[in-house]
Amino acid sequence: MKNKGVPSLSKSLKINFKAWRILFKEYPHILLSNIFVAIWGALSPYVGIYLAARVIDELSSGKDKNTIILLVAATLVAEAIIALLTALLKKYKNTQSAGMYYKIENIYTRKLLNTDFATVDDPKTQELLTTIRQNRNGGGWGIYRMIYDVEQLVSALFSALGGISLTITLFTQAVPENAGDFVVLNNPLFIIAIIAAMVIITCTAPLLDSKAQSYYAKLAGTLNLGNRLHGHFGQVCAEKRYAEDVRVYRQHVYCEKYGNDKTTTFGTKGTFSKYSKGPVGVLFAISAAISEVFTFIVYVFVCLKAWAGAFGIGAVTQYVSAVTKLSGSFSNILRTFGEIKNNAPFLQLELDFLELPDKLKSGEEHVEQLADDDYEVEFKNVSFKYPGTDIYALKNVNIKFGQGRKLAVVGRNGSGKTTFIKLLCRLYDPTEGTILLNGKDIREYDIIEYERVFSVVFQDFALFAMPLGENVATSAEYDMKKVEDCLNKAGFSERLASWKDGLNTVLYKELTEKGVEISGGEAQKIAIARALYKGAPIVVLDEPTAALDPIAESEIYANFNSIVEKKTAIYISHRLSSCRFCDNIAVFDSGEMVQYGTHAELLSDKDGLYSQLWNAQAQYYNKKED
Ligand code: ADP
Fold first, then answer.
1. Across 83-97, 124-138, 430-444, least confident range
2. Which of 116, 394, 418, when mutated, tests ligand 1's pocket best, judged by the most ligand atoms within 8 Å of its CB?
3. Which atom of ligand 1 is nearest the CA belonging to 419?
4. What is the DSSP track for 20-84?
5. Are 589 and 415 within 8 A, CB to CB?
6. Residue range 216-241: average pLDDT?
7. For 445, which of 5, 45, 271, 459 is 20 to 30 Å away at the CA?
8. Whose C-alpha lies nearest to ligand 1, atom 16?
9. What's the Cα-to-Cα distance from 533 to each of 490, 526, 563, rounded to whole Å?
């Protein structure tokens, strides 16, 4: 996904305003601190310029000792106050801007958490977010650049104001009538011609800069890909998880080959280099040269007026500095408008993401608190297609379960088992049909209350690099006894006893040396304990023993009833032997529920899929060693 070309200035400004509002709402002090520093930084140099000119004037004309002492003292005091306030403001800005990368990431994260899962899971959303991050990391485009542009624009505007106030008299102070040919300097046409020349040069340099920048903006897609490839090949061989494979298959040779290729995007014969040596380099060089012509004109004009007696020698330094600053400020204003335009398409991508529709529509109904967790779920003619696909992942599923029953859902990989759970948990809404909880469409319930009905262990669950107890309780405050009890039920008590810090033991080593690495099976037990701690009336375990060794697996089966107690439980597995203890078994195939019944009933249907799967697995387990 590339940016779609540079929009007009007014459209670009609208896009920037929208992004400013979003950033201001989340982190007002980032923008405020940048604006204050910009204003102060723009105006304060003029104090020094003005006072220095007065000192030089006094030295070259009046030479009054007391006035000179007073002016020097005023200059020193003013400079000291300026330095102090500058330091304070910079400190404020640095504090606010610290961790900016993560602050901006936080804005994305909050959006992801407030957006419904179907949108987050949509490949288009993921691609959009990847592009936004690449634009930021590769070219500094997007909100990052917007913050910089705000600072530049405010600084340039205030600097221009300061410059104007110190420059006006350059044009209004006339040379004396007896100055001979120099009198031409008073001629309004001459003054207009000088101002016109200055304005033309002032405008040309930033326009050339902006044109040069626009090449980079247009190349963003190519540069992003280049960054992605460089990032990938530059780091992949150093990553711990690839360490064994890289060595065994000598994969670093690929990476070196990529790194040494001069024709890659950032190679000396690549796209970036071609543009830098070509149009971009030429435009930047002309822009810099033109600025020097401006300085030349200013010096000549100011010196001629001073020579002719329009003002004293001190004013020469004031005017040269002020006019140069004024011109620089105008250039910066134009340059920043150019940047604002170039950045707008990248900001628009961020707005596209941040303006994605929020959460799945929540209903208003309360979920009843039923005694004995007596909840009943029914799927009525439920079909579902994932966003962006034409294939049914679930087809016309009809099933009713609940009231403390244990349901096993079995089937080959890709048969729709996990999708069934995702719909049940309202991560997605059905494409067709209805899911009912206690007779009411689940879309009518308040979504937060509905989510509380389920404790789920997904296959790809995530534990954080935080203390064990906090992981189980998903909170910093927790009931120790209850956490220990849940870990015990999940078969983790022995391992817990071996850790001297107990529930305070930090998982993984990402954040602390003292962290412990755990196996996949141990992680799965902790995830089961977390589901139990939540204490929801319906427990869902998706392949809960896939990463466990046979002993741990048999422990979980043996304790299954005590683990889930009287709760309704849904148990997904493709190891059929583990489903026998369930009251009913639903067999899925290609998105359809093809069989439903008890283990004995399903096994008695010799031609049924369950029988086939059962016999295939039994054969495998019964096979004698050769
Ligand atoms: P199971 O849990 O039985 O292995 P799933 O429910 O995960 O099967 O998948 C059912 C079908 O839906 C498969 O064809 C799978 O490729 C597809 N599928 C699963 N997740 C997604 C997704 N996020 N986007 C598109 N298709 C998906």
1. 124-138
2. 418
3. 6
4. HHHHHHH-HHHHHHHHHHHHHHHHHHHHHHHHHHHHHHHHHTT--HHHHHHHHHHHHHHHHHHHH
5. yes
6. 77
7. 459
8. 414
9. 11, 10, 11
Cα–Cα distance between 446 and 428 in angstroms, integer? Answer: 15
- Domain spans of the chain, in order of start: 9-173+311-354, 365-453+538-626, 463-535
Cβ of 122 below 6 Å from ligand 1 = no
Using the structure block, give the residue that is written with the tokens 């134009």.
Answer: 334
Q: Which whole-number Å values give the CA distances from 46 to 6, 161, 166, 292, 582, in the listed order?
A: 36, 10, 8, 22, 82
**What CA–CA distance (Å, rounded) separates 486 from 476?**
17
Q: pLDDT tens, 569-583? A: 898 887 777 777 788
Give residue 540 CA to ligand 1 midpoint distance, Å: 18
DSSP 388: T
Query: Measuring CA to CA, which residue among 12, 23, 10 is closest to residue 343?
Result: 12
Ligand 1 pocket check for 455: Cβ under 6 Å: no
Supply 521's token pair.
């099976």
CB 593 within 8 A of CB 379: no
Ligand 1 atom closest to residue 574's alpha carbon, by position in its atom list: 3
Asked if 313 and 60 count as a contact pair (C-beta separation under 8 A), the reply is yes
Q: Is 352 helix (H, G, I), strand (E, B) or coil?
A: helix
| CATH number given to 365-453+538-626 | 3.40.50.300
* pTM exceeds cut of 0.85: no
Q: Tell me the CA–centroid distance for residue 310 and ligand 1, in Å.
A: 83
Q: If you measure from the C-alpha of residue 125 to the centroid of ligand 1, how many angstroms do you get, rounded to a whole number?
A: 18
- Specify the DSSP element, H or E, that contains 293: helix 279-307
Q: Is any atom of ligand 1 closer than 6 Å to the C-beta of 121?
A: yes
Distance 394 CA to ligand 1 centre (A): 9
Q: From the CB of 125, is ligand 1 less than 6 Å away? A: no
Ligand 1 mutation target, pool 116, 383, 386, most atoms within 8 A of CB: 386
Q: Please determine whether the domains at 365-453+538-626 and 463-535 fall in the same fold group of CATH.
A: yes
The per-residue b/e assignment along 331-370, b for 16 or more CB within 10 angstroms, e otherwise, is bbbbbbbbbbbbbbbbbbbbbebbebeeebebbebebeee
Which of 186-195, 199-208, 343-352 has the lowest average pLDDT?
A: 199-208
| Other CB atoms within 10 A of residue 407 CB | 23
* pLDDT tens digits, one per residue of 492-551: 989 999 999 999 999 998 888 889 999 888 888 899 899 999 988 898 988 766 666 677
440-441 β-sheet, strand order? 392-402, 376-385, 432-437, 440-441
Question: 416 alpha carbon to ligand 1 midpoint, in Å?
Answer: 6
CA–centroid distance, 396 to ligand 1, in Å, is 16
Strand partners, 445: 365
Q: How would you classify residue 127: left for phi > 0, otherwise alpha for psi between -120 and 50, otherwise beta?
A: alpha
pLDDT-derived band at 284, boundaries 50, 70, 90: confident
Secondary structure of residue 249 in the 3-state scheme: helix
- Asked if the model's pLDDT at residue 620 lies above 70, the reply is no
Q: Ligand 1 centroid vs 612 CA: distance in angstroms?
A: 22
Measure 433 CA to ligand 1 centroid, in angstroms: 19
Segment 267-286 shows an average pLDDT of 86
Question: Of 175, 189, 149, nearest to 38 (Cα)?
Answer: 149
